[in-house]
């Protein structure tokens, strides 16, 4: 039997040695020992000659040490942990419930896309593993790690707004875990890039609308409102933007490229065109070439023909 970091062990309390703590081992006398420091005891003091359950970790001097604090995950398990700190050379440090933090190495993240890296307070699904020296490390959970925990999303979720977390980021969208609430752990989902208002980062918590419950039990999601609701909100936002522009005009129209629209308004070109169509139908805007103008602004610029007639 080995004293392995990241594991819970039932160990025998062999002796107390002041000012250090208690020495524990497998059995009463022989074999390796580990120190349970006084500062790692919570609740009742251990009694020599009894067995207690402890969690093993490496202390600041790389020594295997025991604690009575209960971790949020153990070796080989998956859990959702909060980002507590970041070091640009090492990676992200995660709260794991024992007063010490678990390192998630930087190499787990795309170095060329820092905009999708987690921020302090984000929550990451990780699995605990060990490095070559037997020290605890975290790695991002993969689809296979979720398989024993997830359930098939019910069809009643369709069109509902659900809460979840980003678990991984791809070029055209993000994988997610949708909170199952009282139903269970959660269901897997995907948000396509075109269904996002802005890029989402790994570990970010979000609310999204279920647009499809697939046959495999996963869901497709959108952080945008339904087309009708979204069209109203987008139109209001675009109208407010034009009104703030000099002369009541903006250099964006149906002919503007999708990239420019996404960059300026965080909208797809189709959503942008739907919003413009609503405003034009209501007689609020008009388009000339690559420009969109407020109708009221154009009317204000026209000469007052009636006044001219009266002056004659």
From TrEMBL:
Protein known as: S1 motif domain-containing protein
Source organism superkingdom: Bacteria
Residue intervals of the S1 motif domain: 159-224
Family the entry assigns: Belongs to the CvfB family.
The UniProt record lists the keyword DNA-binding: yes
InterPro entries membership: ArsR-like_HTH, CvfB_fam, CvfB_S1_2nd, CvfB_S1_st, CvfB_WH, NA-bd_OB-fold, S1_domain, WH-like_DNA-bd_sf
Molecular functions per Gene Ontology: DNA binding
Entry keyword set: DNA-binding
Pfam families hit by this protein: CvfB_1st, S1_2, WHD_CvfB
Gene3D superfamilies: Nucleic acid-binding proteins (2.40.50.140), Winged helix-like DNA-binding domain superfamily/Winged helix DNA-binding domain (1.10.10.10)
Organism: Cohnella abietis
């Amino acid at each position: 039997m080995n004293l392995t970091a990241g594991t819970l062990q039932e160990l025998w309390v062999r002796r107390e040695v002041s000012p250090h703590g208690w020495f524990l081992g497998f059995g009463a006398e022989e074999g390796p020992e580990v120190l349970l420091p006084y500062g790692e005891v919570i609740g009742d003091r251990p009694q020599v000659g009894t067995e207690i359950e402890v969690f093993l970790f490496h202390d600041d001097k790389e020594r295997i040490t025991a604690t009575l604090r209960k971790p949020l995950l153990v070796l080989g398990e998956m859990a959702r942990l909060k980002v507590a700190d970041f070091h640009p050379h090492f990676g992200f440090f995660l709260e794991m419930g024992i007063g010490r933090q678990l390192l998630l190495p930087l190499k787990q993240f795309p170095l060329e896309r820092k905009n999708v890296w987690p921020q302090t307070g984000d929550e990451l699904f990780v699995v605990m593993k060990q490095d070559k020296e037997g020290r605890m490390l975290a790695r991002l959970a993969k689809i296979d790690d979720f398989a024993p925990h997830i359930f098939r999303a019910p069809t009643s979720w369709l069109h509902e707004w659900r809460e979840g977390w980003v678990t991984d980021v791809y070029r055209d969208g993000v994988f997610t875990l949708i909170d199952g609430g009282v139903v269970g752990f959660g269901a897997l989902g995907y948000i396509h890039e075109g269904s996002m208002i802005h890029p989402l980062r790994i570990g970010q918590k979000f609310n999204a609308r279920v647009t499809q419950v697939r046959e495999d039990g996963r869901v497709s999601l959108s952080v945008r409102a339904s087309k009708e609701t979204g069209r109203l909100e987008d139109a209001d936002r675009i109208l407010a933007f034009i009104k703030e522009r000099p002369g009541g005009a903006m250099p964006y129209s149906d002919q503007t490229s999708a990239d420019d629209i996404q960059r300026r308004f965080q909208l797809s070109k189709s959503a942008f065109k739907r919003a413009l169509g609503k405003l034009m139908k209501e007689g609020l805007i008009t388009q000339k070439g690559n420009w969109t103008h407020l109708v009221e602004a154009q009317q204000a610029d026209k000469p007052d023909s009636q006044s001219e007639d009266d002056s004659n």
